[in-house]
Structures are given as C-alpha cells and as structure tokens.
C-alpha cells in the first residue's frame, strides 16, 4: 500500500477486540500489508487452489468435502483434487498432493479419526487407507474385508459412536435409498450384522428433493452424500438433494436414537440451502466441530457452466438449538465473515463483519471485451456469468465506478479462467495483477500489487488493514497468459454513505394447490439492493433464508404437509432492515 493512499485511521483490531491481527496468507484471506500473525476473515467460496480436471472442457472442480480436526490441524478432503488440504485455522489452507492413496481420484471421500490414525475411503471402492501423519504422503493400504452389502455403493461416510463402534453409510441415486451398516475396524472393517435402509425418496412430500433448477422437473432428484453426527444422544443423519448441478442443492436431516435407525424426517429440512446470492448450492458436505467446539458444515457449491460438475466448496456456521434441531447461517456467507478463535453461540452470532456489497451493478469499463462477456457481468452477483477481455495479454483491465467515494474494507477477486486449456496433472494457475484506486478515474494510486504472485488463488479475499476511501477501482492483468483475462465477479465490500432501506411492505404470500410451492411478492423499494426471505416451521425459528434481488420469489422446495412462517428483510450498501411482521401459511 503506497503513502498516497487516503485512509481513515481506524484500527480493525481495536474495533474487533476478539479478532487477532490479520496476515497475508495463501488462501481465504490476504491483505496488502505484511506482518500479521493470524487470519480469520473469509468468504465463500473457500479460496483454494481448485484443480483443473483431466478432460474437456478445461475447468476447475472440487466437491463432496469432508473436514476433520486431527492432531491440532484441520484436514479438508474433496473429490477430484489429486490430494487434500491442511490448516491450523480454517482460513489458510496448504495443499498436500497425494499419490500413496490409489483411489484418490474417486469421488466423495470418507474420513475417519480412529486410534490416533486417519482413515480414507473413496466412493464405490472398498479399499481403505490410513496414516498417522497426513502432512506426509505416506498413506498405507489396510487389509480390508469391507464390502458394500447392498445397492448404491457410492458416496460413503464413516461414523464412530461414543462407545467406539464404527459405521459406514452410503447412497447416491434418484431411485436407491441411503443405507448404513456397522463395521469392525479391528477386523479389516468387516461388515457386522445386516445393512439397514435409512432414507427413501419422498419428493412428493418434500419439494426440495424434486429435480430441476427450481425443483421443477417433477421427478425424484438425487438423494446422496450422507453424513452423521451425534448430539445429546440423538443421531442426525444428513443427506443432500436434488442434484449437484442446481442452485437449489441443499442438505436435509433425519433423526434417530439409534445409529441404524429407524430415522424420522426433520421438518425444518433442508437445514442448509443457498439458492441466492453470488454463488449458490450447499449440498453433499460434512458437519464437524472445530477445536473450540463450534459446529460447521462444509458443502458443495456450484458453477456448472462449462460442465455440470464445475463446483466449489463453501463453509457454513451450524448450531443445534434448544429445540434439538440443526440450523445454519448461509445467506451472507459469500460476504466476509470471521472464523472465531473461541466458543461462540452461533444461534445469536452469524459471524458477519457487517460489510456490505458496494459494487453491485455499478458502472463498469474495460480495456476490451469478448462478445457475450460484457463488462457488467463482472459485478452482477452471479458466479455463472463473467466479463472477459479479448486477450490474456498483460495490460488488459476492468474498472468499476462506485458512484461516489465510499469506505472500503475488503475485495473479493473471482477469476473466471475463460478460454483456458489447462488440464490435470499440470493444473494450477497463478494470476498476477495490480489493483488501483482513484477519486476521478484520472489519477490512480496502487492499492494491491500482486504482479509477482506465485500462488493459485481463484477466489481471493483481500481484507485491508484499514478502511480506504475510494470511488473508482481498477484491476489490471500483469502477465501474458494462454487464455483470456476474465472476472466473475470483482466484489467490493464496505459501508456506504446513506441510510438503510425502509421496512418491506405490501407482502403477499400465496401457497399453490401443490403445497410444495409458495410464491412471495412485495412492494418494490427504492434505496434497496435486495431482500432476504426468512422462513421456518416454527414462528420463533425463522432460521432458513434466501437472498434475492427482485421483489418476488418462487420457491418450490417446501414440505407438502408443513405449516410455514415468513418474514422479509431489505438490505443495501448501508445495512439490513429487519422485517417486523411474521406471516403464516398453512
């Protein structure tokens, strides 16, 4: 950061006394200053070096994630990544390429912590591997006796109960159920007893299980990706639906007092759903505890433009309330939020930094544009669209005018890899660029200099040491590349100079004859960026939410036989105005 930068001398550390000083780190969070000790502000999608795949078209992918805390570190595994990641804080992730696991290229890894060792099982293949030191690529094969006893032998998940007994769950089908069975790890994970059918398809009752971009294909989606946790003697069996390529990809729960059931559907399902905002999807993942005892869910998010399996990963705070139901925060998780360094009550703290999006649909310019990839697609809050320059040559640039000078706290730079031809195993790319700011679009000052960057960071969140006052921002390519310089999106976070929106009014909620479908509309408001629809099956638990940018919403993911309660918030660059009225629909 140069001496010419105009900034307010507001020290973030003094404002957020619980936040340790920030640092320059490889993934999740970086700043233009060096010397910070710890990073704990991130934004979805998680900023990993997502690997390009082996086949056409050239695109990145990671999905079906699992995170386990093991020997003082977090280990993140995901499909089609050629390895896994390690972290001390869930913000900085170090990639560990892996060749000692012969099945590392299988989908849907399952991970088990048992007797001071970490175990790995890939989808559809009964081979199991273990290691006591996952920071080294020295996994060894277990002489396994495990065999899948029933159909649908994909998407496995391990579970170790309090009494030491171990179970494996699996299922990934638009027809077959989710299944579980006990195994004996002391006898090569040999199956013990009979396998149990645990979750069948019920798309006729649960709209979120219906296939389609808006649950509109009127056929069963894919029930898949089981995961299980135990809390206060109850077993919470997660599953995902209706399909990984849809924004409505979410996670639901069945509950039992026994690990192999019988299980009962949890009415507030899906407990995690994110069809709105910059990036959607929150299915096939894993719930885990951090070292402080906080619960999180890591999930699959979608792009699905170049290929249905073009996917990313997201991290979501999760909590179990006093009604014994699991809830999550999702709506603002593609805005900056903090990773706490202590035990936090997530029911009352969604971890938001309260920085709002300043760049949405503001005026843009660029050095050039590829036909069909206009400049406004670089700040339209859709990861599925992007601006692309005509070339990948050094000097291509994109610019946004915020409309007036605003206080800026963070930037998220999402690169789009347009016209790349990179494929595995040589499958990473380090963007190099310069970000400048200006008051008049004539005299520019350097804000961020990544012209010598050597790290692959396609979704980089840059948190500034101090607020910066600026109106214009420009990003310029600093290296020649085989492909096009492209963005989806360049996102600016901070606080505007105006007031929050008015309370949403004239709300009309209509439930269709097909009770899985509920349509909401309300009066369009000035001074409003978008709206947050909140709902739940209990009046005092409006814990599900979706962000939209229009004054209506057509939701088709509801339970046929459930009563629902709704409220609607409005938000803009200055804050969120909560809805004060709760609406009931039988």
What does this structure look like?
The protein has 586 residues and is an all-beta fold. It is built from one helix and 42 strands. Strands 27, 28, 29, 30, 31, 32, 33 and 34 form an eight-stranded antiparallel sheet that branches. β17 (223-231) and β18 form a beta hairpin. The radius of gyration is 23 Å and the shape is globular. Mean pLDDT is 93; it is low at 1-38.
Specify Rg, calculated over alpha carbons.
23 Å
Q: Termini separation (Å)?
A: 56 Å
Shape: globular
Average of per-residue pLDDT values: 93
Low-confidence stretches: 1-38
- Please count the helical segments: 1
Structural class: mainly beta
Number of E strands: 42
Report the sheet-strand fraction.
Answer: 35-45%
Note the main sheet. Answer: 8 strands, antiparallel
Helix content: under 10%
Q: What key phrases describe this protein's structure?
A:
six-stranded antiparallel beta sheet; 1% helix; 42 strands; 1 helix; mainly beta; disordered N terminus; eight-stranded antiparallel beta sheet; 586 residues; globular
Question: How is this structure best summarized?
Answer:
The protein is mostly beta strands and 586 residues long.
Write the layout of secondary structure elements.
Elements: H1 12-15, E1 41-42, E2 51-52, E3 60-61, E4 63-70, E5 73-79, E6 83-87, E7 94-97, E8 110-114, E9 117-121, E10 128-131, E11 140-141, E12 157-160, E13 166-170, E14 172-173, E15 178-184, E16 190-199, E17 223-231, E18 234-241, E19 250-256, E20 264-265, E21 272-273, E22 280-289, E23 295-302, E24 311-320, E25 326-328, E26 337-338, E27 356-357, E28 363-366, E29 387-388, E30 397-415, E31 433-438, E32 444-450, E33 459-477, E34 486-495, E35 508-511, E36 518-521, E37 530-536, E38 544-548, E39 552-555, E40 564-572, E41 575-577, E42 583-585
Antiparallel strand pairs: 1-26, 2-3, 4-5, 5-6, 6-7, 8-9, 9-10, 10-11, 12-13, 13-15, 14-17, 15-16, 17-18, 18-19, 19-20, 19-21, 22-23, 23-24, 24-25, 27-34, 28-30, 29-34, 30-33, 30-34, 31-32, 31-33, 35-36, 36-39, 37-38, 37-40, 40-41, 40-42
């Amino acid at each position: 950061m140069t001496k010419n930068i105009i900034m307010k001398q507001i020290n973030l550390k003094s404002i957020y006394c619980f936040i340790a000083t920030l640092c320059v780190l490889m993934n999740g969070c970086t700043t233009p200053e060096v010397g910070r000790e710890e990073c704990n502000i991130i934004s979805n999608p998680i900023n990993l070096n997502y690997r390009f795949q082996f086949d056409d078209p050239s695109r990145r992918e990671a999905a079906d994630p699992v995170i386990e805390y093991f020997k003082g570190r977090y280990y993140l595994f995901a499909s089609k990544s050629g390895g896994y990641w390690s972290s001390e804080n869930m913000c900085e992730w170090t990639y560990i390429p892996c060749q000692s696991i012969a099945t590392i290229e299988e989908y849907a890894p399952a991970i088990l912590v048992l007797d001071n060792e970490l175990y790995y099982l890939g989808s559809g293949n009964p081979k199991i591997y273990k290691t006591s030191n996952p920071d080294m690529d020295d996994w060894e094969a277990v002489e396994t006796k495990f065999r899948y006893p029933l159909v649908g032998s994909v998407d496995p998940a391990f579970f170790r109960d309090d009494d030491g007994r171990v179970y494996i769950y699996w299922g990934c089908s638009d027809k077959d159920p989710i299944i579980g069975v006990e195994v004996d790890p002391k006898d090569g994970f040999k199956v013990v007893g009979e396998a149990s059918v645990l979750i069948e398809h019920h798309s006729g009752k649960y709209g979120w299980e219906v296939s389609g971009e808006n649950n509109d294909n009127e056929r069963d989606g894919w029930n898949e990706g089981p995961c299980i946790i135990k809390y206060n003697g109850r077993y919470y069996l997660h599953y995902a639906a209706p399909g990984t390529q849809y924004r409505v990809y979410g996670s639901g729960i069945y509950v039992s007092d026994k690990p192999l059931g019988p299980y009962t559907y949890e009415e507030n399902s899906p407990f995690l759903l994110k069809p709105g905002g910059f990036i959607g999807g929150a299915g096939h993942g894993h719930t885990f505890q951090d070292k402080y005892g906080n619960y999180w869910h890591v999930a699959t998010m979608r792009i699905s433009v170049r290929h249905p399996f073009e996917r990313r990963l997201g991290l979501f705070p999760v909590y179990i309330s006093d009604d014994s139901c699991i809830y999550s925060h999702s709506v603002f998780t593609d805005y900056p939020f903090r990773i706490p360094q202590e035990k936090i009550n997530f029911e009352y703290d969604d971890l938001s930094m309260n920085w709002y999006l300043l760049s949405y649909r503001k005026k843009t310019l660029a050095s050039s544009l590829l036909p069909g990839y206009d400049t406004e697609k670089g700040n339209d809050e859709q990861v599925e669209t992007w601006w692309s320059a005509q070339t990948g040559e050094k000097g291509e640039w994109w610019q946004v005018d915020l409309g007036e000078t605003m206080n800026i706290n963070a930037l998220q730079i999402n690169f789009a890899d347009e016209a790349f031809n990179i494929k595995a195993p040589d499958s990473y790319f380090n963007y190099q660029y310069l970000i400048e700011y200006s008051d008049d679009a004539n005299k520019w000052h350097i804000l961020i200099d990544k012209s010598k960057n050597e790290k692959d960071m396609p979704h980089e969140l840059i948190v500034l040491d101090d607020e910066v006052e600026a109106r214009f921002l420009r990003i310029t390519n600093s290296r020649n590349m085989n492909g096009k310089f492209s963005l989806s999106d360049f996102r600016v976070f901070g606080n505007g100079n105006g007031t929050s929106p008015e309370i949403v009014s004239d709300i009309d909620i209509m439930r269709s004859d097909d009770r899985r479908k509920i349509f909401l509309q309300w009066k369009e408001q000035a001074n409003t960026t978008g709206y947050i629809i909140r709902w739940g099956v209990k009046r005092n638990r409006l814990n599900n939410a979706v962000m939209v940018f229009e004054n209506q919403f057509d939701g088709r993911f509801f339970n046929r036989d459930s009563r629902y309660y709704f409220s609607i918030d409005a938000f803009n660059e200055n804050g969120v105005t909560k809805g004060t009225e709760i609406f009931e629909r039988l």
